[in-house]
Specification:
CATH architecture of the largest domain: 3-Layer(aba) Sandwich
CATH superfamily of the largest domain: Type I PLP-dependent aspartate aminotransferase-like (Major domain)
Number of domains: 3
Strand content: 15-25%
Helix content: 40-55%
Radius of gyration: 28 Å
Structural class: alpha/beta
Largest sheet: 7 strands, mixed
Number of helices: 19
Number of strands: 17
Length: 476
């Protein structure tokens, strides 16, 4: 191995060859860009030689430098290509956190494109002809939909929680039930964010039971807030009790210095329970019950972009808008455009134009018909896969409605010669990648979140994969 390594030509010699000149010319690179890529290529090949995995020509042969430049070209393609790609979600999880959560609707995309591709009135008052504020654009829709007096948007719900605690409870006490000291994704804990904000956590009750008297017994002059945290990503059952929103709102009203804030997490504007799906509280109901402030996510049950939405009493929201953190946590024009169009769909009762709402409430029979169509199309194309159709379960996802199971149909795909994990890998590495489930040496395709256009792409991906398998073609 050491003998082979010693035979690798020095970098400066490689740069003086005609092969290098062709490499930078074909790839439209500067001399320095080409030099760095060649250095990376040689370093990589050294590693392969040491590991015994180098399959190219030996360093002392004429073709070695050509192999170096070819490998450098592969590195260039990886370095200078985008890493955020469109994928097809055929996993059956609607708000798949790893796949970007809520999909944005067609009209919303058009609005984002219009705003992003031109100058706009983000902070310009057209009527007055002077500087305006970005807070106004979606605020009117949020207020109309929720009954709040005022609203604002920050970049996610964690930011909303942090801003509220920092601006309204710093160095003051905030009362929270022990059963609501939750942790969400990424090790984000209510207790930790409260500590970072400067608010003082006062835990009341026990893990499974908290009563109104527990809150009453801890309100002092230094109390700034009673905070209720919705248990959106887990469920407690059995010997449990919690205090309802209206009771906590009523208690806070007995004190001039105590606010009632409810962190709703997922945030539903649509009543999914009318479809027999979960028991998620509506934002409008919580505000009607007397909450001074609520916060919730934009990219979960609401079905919009990633955002943290704060709604409630005007006096409290105005203080948040003036706080220094409001500028740190503010959202850009594209987020506002996406959110206001999503909210407009709710106002116009066009929830079917919001993909998340449409997918969650999509009838099982509709998915059944689409699944039958896919199986029939694949059989018509004479694929060698073993295909079966069965009943199954989809999930809402995104740390939302953890107990809800959405009835669906699944297309299972097997092959006599290729294991399921290989089919699973090859599908996700297609362009676009198809993300499926894998269980008991079968992959499952759930079409709940798959559009007609994506349906056709899944069909072609499976046909192409079948061709690779039948012709023993290598997969790259």
């Amino acid at each position: 191995m050491k003998e082979l390594l010693r035979k690798i030509p020095p970098i400066h010699e490689a740069l003086e060859t005609g092969g290098f000149n062709r490499f930078i010319e074909i790839n439209d690179l500067s001399f320095n860009q080409g030099k760095e890529l060649v250095k990376e290529s040689v370093t990589s090949i050294r590693k392969y030689i040491l590991e015994g995995t180098w399959e190219g020509p030996p360093p002392d042969t004429q073709g070695f430098l050509d192999a170096v430049f070819m490998h450098a070209e592969k590195i260039k393609k990886q370095k200078y290509s985008i890493s955020l790609h469109r994928v097809i979600n055929a996993s059956g999880t609607v708000l798949h956190t790893n796949l970007g959560r809520a999909r944005i609707g067609a009209e919303t995309i058009e609005h984002i494109s219009s705003v992003a591709g031109s100058y706009n009135n983000l902070e310009y008052d057209i009527d007055e002809g002077k500087r305006g504020t970005r807070h106004t654009h979606a605020e009117k829709f949020i207020c109309e939909l929720t009954g709040a007096e005022a609203a604002m948007i920050v970049n996610n719900n964690a930011a909303a929680v942090f801003l509220i605690l920092s601006a309204l409870a710093k160095n003051k006490e905030v009362i929270v039930s022990r059963g609501e000291l939750v942790e969400i994704g990424g090790s984000f804990r209510i207790s930790s964010i409260m500590e970072e904000s400067g608010a003082k956590l006062v835990e009341v009750g026990t893990t499974n039971k908290t009563h109104l008297k527990d809150y009453q017994g801890h309100i002092v002059e230094d109390t700034a807030m009673i905070m209720k945290v919705h248990q959106s990503n887990f469920v407690m059952k059995g010997f449990t009790s919690a205090v309802e929103s209206e009771e906590l709102a009523g208690l806070s009203k007995e004190y001039d210095h105590v606010l009632y804030y409810e962190d709703l997490g997922s945030g539903a504007l649509f009543d999914f329970s009318q479809y027999g799906i979960g028991e998620e509280p509506l934002i409008s109901d919580v505000i009607e019950k007397g909450a001074d402030l609520v916060s919730f996510s934009g990219d979960k049950l609401l079905g919009g972009p990633q955002a943290g939405i704060i709604a409630g009493k005007k006096e409290a929201v105005d203080l948040l808008k003036k706080h220094q953190l409001a500028r740190v946590l503010r959202v850009d024009k594209m987020t506002i455009a996406a959110l206001e169009m999503t909210l407009l769909h709710y106002l116009k009762k066009e929830e079917d134009k919001i993909p998340a709402v449409f997918s969650i409430t999509r009838p099982k029979e509709d998915i059944h018909q689409q699944s039958i169509k896919l199986v029939d199309q694949l059989k018509h194309r004479n694929v060698s896969f073993i295909l079966e159709l069965s009943e199954g379960i989809s999930k809402v996802g995104g740390g939302t409605m953890p107990e809800v199971e959405l009835d669906t149909y699944l297309v299972s795909v097997q092959h006599n010669r290729v294991p399921a994990n290989e089919i699973h890998k090859r599908l996700r590495k297609q362009d676009p990648g198809v993300i499926t489930r894998i269980h008991q040496d079968r992959i499952f395709i759930d079409l709940r979140t798959v559009t007609p256009e994506e349906h056709d792409e899944i069909l072609e991906a499976l046909v192409e994969l079948n061709g690779q398998i039948e012709n023993d073609l290598p997969f790259s």
